[in-house]
């Protein structure tokens, strides 16, 4: 009689797992008896019942018979451990399966076994993930009344529950080297202590089984396992595992709010990468070290289905998209008009004309990139004959250090006192107070339109605009919205300008008076960095920037006393006099992905007379100057 093709198929499936037909035969026989020859139950879910029955049977046989079985089957090698098969198309391509091994303490699989599954060439790249909790990964065992024998008792109850999405966080400690010996490929993962939380995720770095970083497959255990390769941000202390429902809902919203969800460049890998990024981002957003506290918080959030997400607050006006993320009910969406560069409100006088740029004020003889010329061009004169930027586009260490030390020690020698201070005049036109002093600042001068170099010249950083990946997010300390970077930023990186309306100080003062009842406003910046060189400024030349109603992303940068990670540096671009200049933010140290970007506003929290009422500072710095708050 010709063998039953279903038996042959079951044998070949088990053989691929390294289990011989002889071993499978008695188990299959008993299983058929228990299931009353219902093959569907046996074949279901990649022979899950058969695989389980086999391993349970083996286990129960006791140590002696187990040893015998292993010796005969694997030539004395380490016994096969029960695999959770993740198989995306068993019939078509068994060599592309991924395996999870039950016992994480000893998950080095036998070479034979790996070769059987992956084939000779691919066995090194096999990715193995230990399943932490047997209960959470395995179906219930049924005590089958009416059947005798151990196997029957341990037979797996066929599952009629809908498969759940179950993502496991795994510890890769003790895993076999899946990197194929490449030292630069380090597995990275996090371990969830709370197995009650079924929403966990396995994130492994570069344990690529077949070229891609993302691996998906459905297991034989009614689960779907997704392996996502995420960034090293995971190891940061402020990362806590977000609720998966919340991440899912966030993704839904994000893609529903995006007009081009499925464009011609759609790819599943991109989508999953995005999922990874969102997962990390939401994890970081929690900002607390308590996993349990956060997961509760997340549950509530998920219940309320509550997240704001704007994919690009710049409405396409910057070269990069800047997203905003926050929770509904916590804070209103900011109401302002995004402008990528400064704009005159009304009375400010800005004389920008090429005629005002003298031949000595530009490098008309240059071409290409001024930084690659043998000698610095005339535009470097402002910065002592050296360009402020490195060829990599960062601020030079010495220049940055000089700016930082001047900002940190606002000593009198760097201050200038006006005879008739426009700032004081704006507060009280008829009886102005004496000038309180203005810091003389170090300027950067960038090449511009009259210069011979091109737009890619290394001395044109600020004018080329934002290039970092930034995000507006809701701070947890009550500071309202804040700005963070989504990527690591080296020291000296240009982040963004503070762009807003250009007002005269008089106009600003009027505006402040009119809005004095409003608690929160953005912080205006007085453009007084070079008032020293002016004998007397006309009212319409004493300028400031206000980004409250119209501004760029700089308006979201919160204050931090003393140890902020950004420094504001005046930059001369199109105007040779310094009534008007650009205020550019640079990192003053390396800033890690997901860190909030902060800037020291230079507020005197004791100055009760200042027209702008200082907020209660929640910067969290050890050097916080808000003594009232501390008191
Ligand atoms: C330039 S805006 C920054 C963006 C602002 N957080 C928002 O939600 O639009 C300045 C305002 O943010 C708030 N803020 C900034 N830094 C803060 C801090 N360290 N503590 C408390 N509030 C802060 C204050 O209300 C301040 O007037």
TrEMBL record:
GO molecular function, a single term: metal ion binding
Matches recorded under SUPFAM superfamilies: SET domain
Pre-SET domain: residues covered: 366-465
Primary location class: nucleus
Keyword Phosphoprotein: no
Domain SET: 468-602
Alphabetical list of InterPro entries matching this protein: Pre-SET_dom, SET_dom, SET_dom_sf, SUVR4/1/2, WIYLD_dom_sf, WIYLD_domain
GO cellular component term of the entry, any: chromosome
Pfam families associated with the record: Pre-SET (PF05033), SET (PF00856), WIYLD (PF10440)
Subcellular location: Chromosome; Nucleus
Annotated keywords: Chromosome, Metal-binding, Nucleus, Transferase, Zinc
Region ranges (Disordered): 138-192
The protein's name in its UniProt record: Uncharacterized protein
């Amino acid at each position: 009689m010709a063998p039953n093709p279903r038996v042959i198929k079951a044998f070949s499936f088990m053989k691929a797992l390294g289990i011989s037909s002889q071993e499978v035969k008695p188990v299959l026989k008993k299983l058929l008896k228990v299931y009353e020859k219902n093959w569907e139950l046996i074949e279901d879910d990649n022979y899950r019942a058969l695989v389980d029955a086999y391993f349970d049977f083996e286990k129960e046989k006791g140590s002696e018979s187990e040893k015998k079985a292993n010796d005969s089957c694997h030539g004395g090698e380490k016994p096969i451990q029960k695999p959770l098969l993740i198989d995306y198309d068993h019939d078509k391509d068994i060599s592309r399966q991924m395996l999870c091994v039950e016992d994480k303490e000893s998950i080095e699989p036998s070479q034979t076994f790996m070769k059987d599954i992956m084939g000779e060439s691919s066995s090194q790249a096999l990715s193995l993930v230990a399943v932490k909790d047997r209960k959470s990964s395995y179906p219930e065992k049924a005590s089958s009344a009416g059947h005798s024998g151990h196997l029957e008792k341990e037979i797996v109850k066929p599952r009629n529950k809908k498969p759940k999405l179950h993502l496991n966080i795994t510890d890769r400690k003790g895993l076999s080297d899946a990197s194929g010996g490449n030292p630069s490929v380090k597995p990275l993962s996090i371990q969830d202590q709370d197995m009650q939380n079924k929403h966990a995720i396995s994130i492994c770095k570069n344990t690529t089984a077949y070229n891609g970083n993302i691996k998906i497959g459905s297991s034989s255990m009614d689960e779907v396992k997704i392996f996502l390769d995420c960034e090293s941000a995971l190891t940061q202390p402020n990362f806590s595992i977000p609720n998966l429902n919340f991440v899912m809902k966030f993704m839904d919203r994000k893609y529903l709010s995006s007009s081009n969800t499925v464009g011609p460049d759609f790819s599943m890998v991109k989508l999953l990468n995005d999922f990874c990024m969102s997962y990390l981002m939401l994890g970081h957003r929690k900002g607390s070290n308590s996993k349990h506290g956060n997961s509760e918080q997340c549950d509530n959030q998920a219940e309320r289905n509550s997240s704001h997400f704007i994919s690009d607050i710049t409405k396409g006006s910057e070269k990069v998209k800047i997203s905003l993320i926050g929770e509904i009910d916590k804070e209103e969406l900011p109401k302002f008009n995004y402008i990528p560069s400064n704009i005159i409100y009304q009375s400010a006088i800005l004389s920008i004309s090429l005629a005002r740029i003298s031949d000595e004020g530009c490098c008309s003889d240059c071409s290409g990139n001024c930084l690659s010329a043998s000698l610095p061009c005339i535009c470097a004169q402002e910065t002592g004959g050296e360009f402020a930027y490195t060829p990599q586009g960062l601020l030079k260490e010495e220049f940055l250090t000089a700016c930082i030390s001047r900002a940190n020690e606002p000593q009198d020698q760097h201050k200038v006192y006006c005879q008739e201070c426009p700032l004081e005049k704006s507060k009280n036109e008829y009886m102005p107070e004496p000038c309180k002093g203005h810091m003389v600042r170090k300027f950067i001068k960038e090449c511009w339109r009259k210069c011979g170099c091109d737009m890619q010249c290394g001395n044109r950083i600020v004018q080329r605009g934002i290039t970092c990946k930034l995000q507006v997010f809701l701070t947890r300390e009550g500071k309202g919205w804040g700005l963070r970077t989504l990527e690591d930023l080296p020291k000296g990186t240009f982040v963004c300008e503070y762009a807003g309306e250009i007002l005269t100080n008089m106009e600003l003062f009027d505006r402040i008076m009119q809005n004095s009842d409003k608690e929160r406003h953005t912080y205006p910046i007085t453009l007084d960095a070079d008032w020293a060189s002016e004998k007397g400024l006309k009212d319409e030349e004493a300028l400031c920037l206000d980004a409250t109603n119209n501004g760029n992303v700089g308006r979201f940068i919160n204050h931090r006393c003393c140890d902020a990670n950004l420094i504001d540096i005046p930059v001369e671009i199109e105007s040779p006099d310094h009534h008007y200049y650009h205020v550019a933010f640079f990192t003053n140290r390396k800033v890690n992905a997901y860190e909030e970007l902060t800037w020291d506003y230079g507020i005197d929290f004791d100055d009760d007379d200042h027209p702008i009422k200082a907020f209660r500072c929640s910067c969290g710095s050890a050097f916080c100057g808000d003594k009232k708050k501390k008191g």
